[in-house]
Design a protein that fits this description.
Elements: H1 3-15, H2 17-26, E1 31-34, H3 41-46, E2 50-53, H4 74-84, E3 93-97, H5 101-113, E4 119-122, H6 131-152, H7 158-182, H8 190-199, H9 205-220, E5 229-235, H10 241-249, E6 252-259, H11 276-286, H12 299-310, E7 315-321, H13 325-340, E8 345-350, H14 358-373
Parallel strand pairs: 1-2, 1-3, 3-4, 5-6, 5-7, 7-8
Helix pairs in contact: 1-8, 4-5, 6-11, 7-9, 12-13
The structure holds iron/sulfur cluster.
Iron/sulfur cluster is lined by residues 36, 73, 75-76, 100, 102-103, 236, 292, 321, 324-327.
Length: 375
């Protein structure tokens, strides 16, 4: 397939997840929803079901408001809204991890708001680095497995988990290589880049890997387009068409991201040592550089600056999801580190109910002008 055909395929999947779900169900597959972030997809994959990401949607909140106070992030609220509207009907269960207060509330509310789809909690430890953190994580996975077996009627086999972890490690590697190649291809728009990452949530990872590898080879064979203003984008979710179109209209190229729904997923592989379940638990415990993962040293901040510098990004754009406490706590630290590194940094606030991006447009245009002056 050509670059344009591959980008078209990623776009189709990214904008029509319901069609993807229906097609998988028609093939007789079981689907398990995975809420953000770091849900152990490999377990679901190993059982023969398809993990599908549930990051909410850009829609008006009607019914879910009765389950949440107004100050809960729109990702959690819109997941319940979609569930109550029947968009997820046909799936076997939803796994929701416990990594922030909104996610904890989401799980409890889901039980009452969407009783037709079983809720499976995954309780992660905050202190994940000591041995007891890994033991706790492994015990959590064992409980998720028991709940999944009950909800899907499928059985878990640890040998198959080893195969699935290899599939996920290969996907991680493909996404990391893609990110590096995209940094040298400004002709790929922010919207197209977003489609590639978003589509990964709705496809079997082995199928997504095959398409990504094809795209990487096709991009390597074509000359790079005209240079744009290079930025690093950070945040939880940056897939809104209203946002990516502004980035493209402003001539900004995303050369790297620190986005929870994008590159943060692909930084850590399952290690080689231990039983398959121990290796999966170790994968989570080895993760770092994320606002949702406890870290007194806040290594994420330095990673953002170092990546931006190494890729010649001219600035850092923080896309802050409204009412996201974990991200808000890091903003002053990131700003300070960027300032110390003479790296312009701008913050815009978004949520999944935004229909008017004009305020964000003004901030991004000003940021673009600032970066142009500093060149
Ligand atoms: S991390 Fe932030 S955006 Fe994600 S669910 Fe928690 S509060 Fe919402």
């Amino acid at each position: 397939m050509t670059v344009q055909e591959l980008l078209g395929r990623f776009h189709e999947v990214a904008v029509h997840p319901a069609a993807q779900k229906d097609a998988l169900l028609a093939q007789g597959k079981k689907i398990v929803l995975t809420a953000p972030v770091y849900t152990p997809e490999e377990i679901i994959h190993a059982m023969g079901a398809v993990p599908m990401g549930a990051w909410g949607g850009d829609l008006e909140l009607e019914n879910s408001k009765k389950y949440f106070p107004a100050f809960i992030c729109s990702i959690a609220q819109s997941i319940v809204e979609l569930g109550m509207k029947g968009v997820y009907e046909g799936v076997s269960a939803i796994v929701i991890p416990s990594l922030c207060d909104s996610l904890k509330v989401l799980g409890e509310n889901w039980k009452y708001a969407v009783p037709s789809i079983p809720f499976i909690p995954m309780t992660y430890p905050q202190n994940r680095k000591p041995a007891f953190g890994q033991t706790f994580t492994l015990a959590g996975y064992q409980r998720v497995i028991a709940d999944l077996e009950k909800a899907t009627g499928l059985t878990f086999d640890e040998a198959k988990l080893a195969d699935s972890m290899e599939v996920y490690n290969q996907h991680n590697a493909a996404m990391r290589e893609l990110t590096a190649v995209l940094a040298d291809h400004p002709e790929i728009t922010a919207a197209q880049r977003s489609d590639i990452f978003k589509s990964a949530w709705f496809m079997l990872k082995e199928e997504h890997t095959a398409l990504v590898n094809q795209l990487v080879e096709a991009l390597k064979a074509q000359p790079a387009g005209a240079a744009k203003t290079r930025i690093l984008v950070s945040g939880i979710l940056t897939d809104a068409p209203g946002l990516t179109s502004i980035l493209d209209e402003c001539g900004l190229q995303v050369v790297a991201d620190d986005v929870a729904a994008e590159s943060r997923q692909y930084r850590t592989d399952s290690p080689a040592e231990g039983t398959p379940l121990e290796r999966l638990a170790a994968k989570f415990c080895n993760m770092d550089h994320c606002s949702l993962l406890y870290d007194v040293e806040k290594k994420r901040v330095n990673l953002i600056v170092d990546q931006a510098k190494s890729l010649n990004a001219q600035g850092v754009l923080l896309v802050l999801t409204k009412f996201c406490d974990p991200e808000e706590f890091d903003v002053p630290l990131i700003r300070r580190a960027c300032q110390a590194a003479s790296l312009p940094c701008s913050v815009i606030e978004v949520d999944r109910q935004m229909v008017n991006y004009e305020q964000a447009r003004t901030a991004i245009e000003t940021f673009r002008d600032l970066l142009s002056e500093s060149m």
